[in-house]
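Please decode residue identities from the backbone states below.
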């Protein structure tokens, strides 16, 4: 039973014309490790207030790599939904919907078998209203770039073509030493000048986009090719001042993605890194903090890795011991072509490999420091399969008395069609988080969250988190992190699965017409 208008009558929540203010008592356990294997736990309660601004801004999203498979599919997908399009396929008529998006197509349980769409619980941007533009090193208009991507059904392409043909990518910051050399042939839409002049040009693009479209907020989303990792260098990447100085001095150690991030942050834009490279260095994070914006990354979690972050948790949390995980992919899109060179593949390998670390560390019965688990990631570029990536995984686990359980997964991931709803969720929730502030009873004013927006990790393969805080890769915990904050902001308690109603009462659903 899906409900659209949700009213919470609770002393924990107040609505004014512009804000929702809720109060929530947060429980945390303070842990004290004593000698040997002893631990002392002191539970602590902290009362938080959350203030959510109700007014949804007019949002613009600037995509770096807008002419790529994901960029064009994102623009076409939102157009198709906004225009309410239907198109013919060999299986019949398909109507545009946001299937695959957590905010648009998932629900939250309110109680007694009643559900609400995630998007209906707090005011959120409607993806149909987002204004898009972006940069690409290739100047092809978005209609022809969509054709080149070979992702969408021809009858859908035909309908969005007239709008997309008018959209041209802005000239880009390009440095071939960061992406694969095989991308050079695409590069015909490139900014000239010094590094500083290029950053200035990107800042001017952002200003003009905001002004021309009367936007309240702009988010920058990296959907460009995967770059090789930048070598972290003291004096360049470590502080905000050093990065800005390195830009003035035209340092070759600054990747294009770093330059877009800096330009965006200086223009007051949040920055989301949809690829694996280490754009968000300490200096960039410090700059984000100084400018009051959020950054989040790294690398969209869409297909194989998303399933892995469920399967490995499922095995280890019930006491089964994965010993070997081999993940093989082949894909034939331009992303696969770029990843066919070793340094770009290495960036992807790092982000795909880290996803099981926290699960293994959570269970020392199965894994002590000396236990080795074979975890391999292989990617091959096979042009013929295009965007329809094949992901083949083998999980070999140790079970009772030396037995072995083998799970084989064959996953055909339509890469861009999985990625686009995730890109939308990232920008929609990032925008929502920028309207939520918090305080405790001791604080006089509401504050923003940490500039590293780790709450978006549900959508990211290698979540970036604030220094000295734990990384969470397990999918259901990441989802509950978002869901519970939404619940608390509207005056509901976080979800717990104790089901005391089922155990302690003779329970039947009773839906009264009003709780007044
Ligand atoms: N399921 C998925 O599709 C998925 C999942 C996780 C991560 N990603 C990452 O998302 C990114 C985009 O994927 P895609 O399939 O759209 O790739 P793509 O190669 O089709 O698109 C990337 C676009 O970026 C452009 N580009 C490269 N460098 C640029 C720069 N400096 N400035 C502006 N534009 C630049 C390219 O010309 C290209 O059009 C890749 O890095 C990929 O690894 C994709």
């Amino acid at each position: 039973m899906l409900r659209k208008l949700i009213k919470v009558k609770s002393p924990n929540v107040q609505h004014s014309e512009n804000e929702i203010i809720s109060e929530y008592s947060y429980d945390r356990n303070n842990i004290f490790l004593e000698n040997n294997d002893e631990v002392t736990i002191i539970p602590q309660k902290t009362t938080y207030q959350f203030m959510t601004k109700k007014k949804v801004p007019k949002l613009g999203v600037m995509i770096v790599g807008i002419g790529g498979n994901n960029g064009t599919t994102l623009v076409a997908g939102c157009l198709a939904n906004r225009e309410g399009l239907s198109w013919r396929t060999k299986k019949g008529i398909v109507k545009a919907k946001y299937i695959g998006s957590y905010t648009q197509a998932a629900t939250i349980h309110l109680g007694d078998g009643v559900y609400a769409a995630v998007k209906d619980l707090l005011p959120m941007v409607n993806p149909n209203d987002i204004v898009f533009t972006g940069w690409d090193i290739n100047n092809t208009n978005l209609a022809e770039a969509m054709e080149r991507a070979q992702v969408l059904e021809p009858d859908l392409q035909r309908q969005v073509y007239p709008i997309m043909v008018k959209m041209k990518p802005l000239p880009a910051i390009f440095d071939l030493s960061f992406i694969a050399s095989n991308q050079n042939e695409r590069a015909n839409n490139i900014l000239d000048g010094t590094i500083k002049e290029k950053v200035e040009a990107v800042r001017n693009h952002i200003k003009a986009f905001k002004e021309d479209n009367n936007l309240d907020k702009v988010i920058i989303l990296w959907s460009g090719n995967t770059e090789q990792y930048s070598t972290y260098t003291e004096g360049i990447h470590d502080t905000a001042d050093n990065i800005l100085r390195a830009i003035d001095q035209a340092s070759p150690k600054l990747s294009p993605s770093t330059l877009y991030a800096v330009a965006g942050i200086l223009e007051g834009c949040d920055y989301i890194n949809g690829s694996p490279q280490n754009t968000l260095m300490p200096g960039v994070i410090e700059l984000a903090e100084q400018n009051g914006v959020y950054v989040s990354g790294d690398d969209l979690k869409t297909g194989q890795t998303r399933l892995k972050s469920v399967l490995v948790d499922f095995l280890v949390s019930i006491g089964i011991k994965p010993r070997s995980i081999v993940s093989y992919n082949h894909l034939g899109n331009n992303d696969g072509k770029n990843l066919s060179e070793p340094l770009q593949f290495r960036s992807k390998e790092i982000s795909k490999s880290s996803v099981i670390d926290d699960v293994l560390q959570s269970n020392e019965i199965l894994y002590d420091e000396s236990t080795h688990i074979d975890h391999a990631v292989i990617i091959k570029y096979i042009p013929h399969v295009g965007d329809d990536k094949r992901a083949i995984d083998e999980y070999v686990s140790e079970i009772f008395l030396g037995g072995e359980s083998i799970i084989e997964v064959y996953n055909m991931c339509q890469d861009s069609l999985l990625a686009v709803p995730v890109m939308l969720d990232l920008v929609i929730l990032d925008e929502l988080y920028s309207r939520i502030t918090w305080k405790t009873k001791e604080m006089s004013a509401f504050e923003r969250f940490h500039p590293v927006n780790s709450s978006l990790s549900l959508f990211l393969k290698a979540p970036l988190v604030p220094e000295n805080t734990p990384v969470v890769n397990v999918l259901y915990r990441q989802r509950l992190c978002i869901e519970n904050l939404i619940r608390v902001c509207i005056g509901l308690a976080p979800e717990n699965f104790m089901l005391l109603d089922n155990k302690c009462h003779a329970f039947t659903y009773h839906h009264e017409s009003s709780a007044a």
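Observation: Residues 64-65, 67-71, 135-138, 172-174, 179, 186, 223-226, 256, 274-275, 299-300, 302-303, 333-335, 338, 415-416, 418-419 surround nicotinamide-adenine-dinucleotide (CB under 6 Å).
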